[in-house]
Amino acid sequence: EPRSPWCCLAWTLVIGTMNSLVFLLNLLLMFVIFTIVLLPTIVVVYFGFQCHSQVLHSSARYCKSVLDDNSSSALIILGFVIMSPLLVVAMATYCSLARRLQLLVCFQPYSLALYKGGRWCRRGEGAPCCARGCQTQLKAWV
């Protein structure tokens, strides 16, 4: 049965807030994973650009004694070369973790705000954010 207009508006705000929080959680998880996996690339490219004479030309001791322009260029190239495989590793890690935690199942449709009696979970095992006690139906073809 349809909800009243004020109840529909309240449920829309609740569902919108919940979906926004789940989105921010996914974004935070992705940021943390990509930062950890791409840290070697970030460090190598940073030191390459910092010590190159035509970019930043730092006066740090290691730039003067260890890294010249050729080695700084090599660090920059190495950083960009190892970035591609590390991006693949980071995305695979995020996808497997999101699938294991079932984070994408937590997004709720706005049809729950329009009609009474909607359930907060979907078919299957359910996710940690879904309400327990939802009756899931077994499929004959599983």
Describe the structure.
By secondary structure, the protein is mainly alpha-helical. The chain has one domain. Helix content is 62%, strand content 0%. It has five helices and no strands. Helix 1 packs across helix 4 and helix 2 runs antiparallel to helix 4. The longest helix has 33 residues. The two termini are 32 Å apart. The C terminus is likely disordered.
Topology diagram in text:
Elements: H1 5-37, H2 39-51, H3 61-65, H4 69-101, H5 111-114
Helix pairs in contact: 1-4, 2-4
Structural class by helix and strand composition? mainly alpha
Our estimate of the beta-strand percent is under 5%
Mean pLDDT: 80
* Poorly predicted residue ranges: 125-136, 138-142
How far is the N terminus from the C terminus? 32 Å
- The tally of helices reads 5
SSE run: HHHHH
How many domains make up the coordinates? 1
Radius of gyration: 25 Å
Which geometry do the CA atoms define? elongated
Largest beta-sheet characterization: none
Estimate percent helicity.
Answer: 55-70%
What is the count of β-strands? 0
